[in-house]
Design goal:
It contains 14 helices and ten strands. By secondary structure, it is α/β, with parallel strands linked by helices. It has one domain (5-40, 125-145, 157-339): TIM Barrel, CATH 3.20.20. The longest helix is centred in the middle third of the chain and has 18 residues, at 207-224. It is globular.
């Protein structure tokens, strides 16, 4: 029986954390038994130059500001080479909204990677896609088709933050709004390009606004079936203009459990060791998460906000085993490649 938003809010607000965790874990267990998956990939941030200047971001630089950079295609290929050598199967290429790059830069990058390596390109946020389209004077659909033809396989869910315009206007007024984000995903799904969906909590949003975000994702999934997974992150306030406090592990775990219970049409729920650390990452497996995301051979955005946790295959399989689960390496489509 699908949980309506009114009932969900009551459960979210008044529910006991352990009870919610138990409920979420029962759903996970029914779907996936005792297996927890992870992927080996690399985050490549091709530029930190960004015209959006979001208040919650510690990563971006203005053009000509000290520390601003743009990677050449050769530098990107070298990073891909290292990723493949380390057993990586996926690339997550993301960057700032560079004011001077045209669509050819991205198309050529994708073609070069596909020509030289057998690897899945799970890259570019909805924010970037809309920016590319605007700069090229093309529709979003045409832009997506061109990127797909050049080698783009699927889209990550970044840039969603909280899909409530009241919050977006406060934290990133220059960034795309809710309907824009949903529209990019809808169009990507319409051409067979799958994606993930994310939510970032800790901007002072209410529980009702978090549920509003989840409901928008659930509704779009009913329509397209294009989301493979849902990932909840926590805002990292250090070194940002927005500032504020980190949300508690209790709040994060409760929200994670609710995503598993409420998002009945999204198969995979990912626990975040990147923002939570290994111990909480390990615990997420008892609160609805069937996946622990990536080994992440490189990560710069969360690191710029002062949070840094290292991971390796040995460490990851150990974390999963110690939670009483069977570790399995997966690919972007969540197909198991290897069980440990």
């Amino acid at each position: 029986m699908r949980l309506a938003s009114g009932e969900a809010l009551k459960l979210f607000r008044d529910g006991d954390l352990l009870e919610l965790g138990k409920q979420a874990d029962a759903i996970r267990k029914k779907k996936f038994g005792n297996v927890t998956t992870f992927i080996i990939d690399r985050n490549i941030n091709y530029t930190n130059i960004c015209k959006n200047e979001c208040k919650f971001c510690a990563f971006f630089r203005r053009k000509n500001q000290r520390g601003a950079y743009l990677l050449t295609h050769e530098e990107i290929l070298q990073k891909v080479r290292e990723t493949v050598a380390a057993g990586g199967t996926q690339l997550m290429i993301q960057g700032g909204l560079h004011p001077d790059l045209d669509l050819n830069y991205y198309e050529e990058m994708l073609r070069l990677i596909k020509k030289n390596f057998d690897i899945t390109i799970h890259s570019f946020t909805a924010t970037e896609i809309q920016h590319f389209a605007t700069c090229a004077g093309l529709s979003i659909l045409e832009t997506l088709k061109r990127l797909q033809a050049a080698g783009l396989d699927s889209l990550p869910g970044g840039g969603a933050e909280i899909l409530v315009d009241e919050i977006r206007k406060k934290i990133s007024p220059k960034k795309i709004m809710t309907d824009d984000w949903l529209n990019v995903m809808r169009l990507a799904h319409s051409i067979g390009m799958k994606s993930t969906a994310t939510m970032v909590i800790g901007f002072g949003e209410t529980l009702n606004q978090r549920l509003e975000h989840m409901e928008k994702i659930r509704n779009l999934q009913d329509e397209t079936g294009g989301f493979r997974a849902f990932i909840t992150w926590t805002y990292q306030p250090k070194n940002t203009a927005l500032g504020g406090e980190k949300v508690s592990a209790h709040d994060y775990m409760k929200t994670l459990s609710m995503t598993r219970i409420f998002l009945d049409n999204i198969e995979h729920i990912q626990g975040s060791w990147v923002t939570q650390g290994e111990k909480i990452g390990q615990l997420t497996q008892a609160f609805g998460a069937d996946d622990l995301g990536s080994i992440m051979l490189e990560e710069n955005v969360v690191r710029a906000a002062g949070t840094s946790f290292e991971m390796s295959t040995r460490k990851m399989t150990d974390l999963i085993r110690k939670a009483g689960k069977i570790p399995a390496q997966r690919n972007t489509k969540y197909e198991v490649l290897k069980t440990f």
